[in-house]
Amino acid sequence: MSETTKKTVAILCGGGPAPGINTVVGTIAKTFLQDGYRVLGIHEGYAGLLNEARRVKEIDFAKADEIFKTGGSYLQMSRYKPKDAEFSTKFFVENNVKLLVTVGGDDTASTANRLSTFLASQNVKIQNIHVPKTIDNDLPLPPDQYTFGFISATEESCRLATTIYEDARTSALWFVIAIMGREAGHLALSVGSACHLPMIIIPEMFNKTEITFDKITRLVISSIVKRKILGIGYGAAIVSEGVFHFLSDEEIKNTGIQFQYDAHGHPELGNISKAHIFNTLLQEELSRLKLSVKSRPVEIGYHVRCVPPSGFDKMYCSMLGMGVKELFDAGKTGCMVTVDTSGNVKPLFLKDVEDKNGKIRPRLVDMECNETKMVYAKNQQYLVKEDYEAARKYLPNPEEYDFFRILEWETLYKEDGHPI
């Protein structure tokens, strides 16, 4: 059979990298190759797919076996989101493509659905199956299923955060750590609780009040002063960059920090360290309060996206890759592949997790679950009403730095007064 008539699987990767991409791609390739398929990898995501000068790499068994254990992405990635008018049948027809596998987040998946609809309208029938990827863990998978890459990114972030926390103790400093998370705080919460960082700030905790820089700063100072009362002069606060998703442009501009602005007048947040912003505002408030505390900014960001996958992610991504073949053989299309802890493969159809505008709803941290409540009730240090008298040594108005008053929470305790 000639290469042009051989049934083909095409794979592309969209968005940003996450540990385990190569495991997914390598496993898909191995699984389909043994059934006689040709496997093509497309560089630069949809931008590469729709470019006449596209770079396509045929993935044989040797290449699949070489890449499956490595970090980064063998297939170069792109965030490009094409318009419907850019779609074409040429690549799919010429290469006899029967399956398009997309690896990425919600935008990558929804674009695959649009493309498949276009191809069907042109009498070109293909299946499309999406493998959900993000270190943010914010795609709406079934309960207790992670997005691949999250566990590996958490482990590497914990390694870094543990070193930072030890530096804080050694140097008698406070560190303000900003960590990735587009609009959900899963990574910050996991790293902060695992490393016993005394203050974890995520967007979901502002479920009763508006997010502002002032509240973020006061939460950090609440922890600093509580630790002083406990006789501890160092610490670290971790802040999810997702809080920026909920801040207004005006709030950001009012910081006084110099930003570059895009064509629409919005601050270019990607060009500046979020940790630098938080730390600058913290230093200003500490100075105003005449609190002698040294703090330093640290960013945990892009360097956790391309680490080699952990054992968990290598196994999980292998199951996802094999799951793609199982769903393909069952005739499924327009879906994400999911695999539970028993290895059961099920499709998750995008139409079931989209809002009325066709956007996939993000999975946020559940502030009402017992795990989250335990972290904030037992594994954080902050000022409460009982600390006011001791805190007056450091603050003129301790009540303004009361954790519960800042967040407008009533309590994290049971009715009998005992911690959760």
Descriptive notes:
This protein has 420 residues and is α/β, with parallel strands linked by helices. The chain has two domains: 8-149 and 309-352, Rossmann fold; 153-305 and 383-407, Rossmann fold. Helix content is 36%, strand content 14%. The protein contains 14 helices and eleven strands. A seven-stranded mixed sheet has the order 3-2-1-4-5-10-11, sandwiched between helices. A four-stranded parallel sheet has the order 7-8-6-9, sandwiched between helices. α1 (21-33) packs across α11 and α8 crosses α10.
Question: Which keywords apply here?
Answer:
single chain; 420 residues; alpha/beta; Rossmann fold; 2 domains; four-stranded parallel sheet; 11 strands; 36% helix
Give a quick precis of the structure:
With 420 residues, the chain is an alpha/beta fold. It has 14 helices and eleven strands.
**Which sequence of strands runs across the widest sheet?**
3-2-1-4-5-10-11
CATH class of the largest domain: Alpha Beta
CATH third-tier fold name of the largest domain: Rossmann fold
Name of the CATH architecture of the largest domain: 3-Layer(aba) Sandwich
- Helix percentage range: 25-40%
Tell me the overall shape: elongated
Distance between the termini: 66 Å
Say how many strands there are.
Answer: 11
Mean pLDDT: 90
Q: Strand-and-helix sequence, N→C?
A: EHEHEHHEHEHEHEHEHHEHEEHHH
Strand content: 5-15%
Which class do the helix and strand fractions yield? alpha/beta
Low-confidence stretches: none
Number of helices: 14
| Biggest beta sheet summary | 7 strands, mixed
How many structural units, i.e. domains? 2
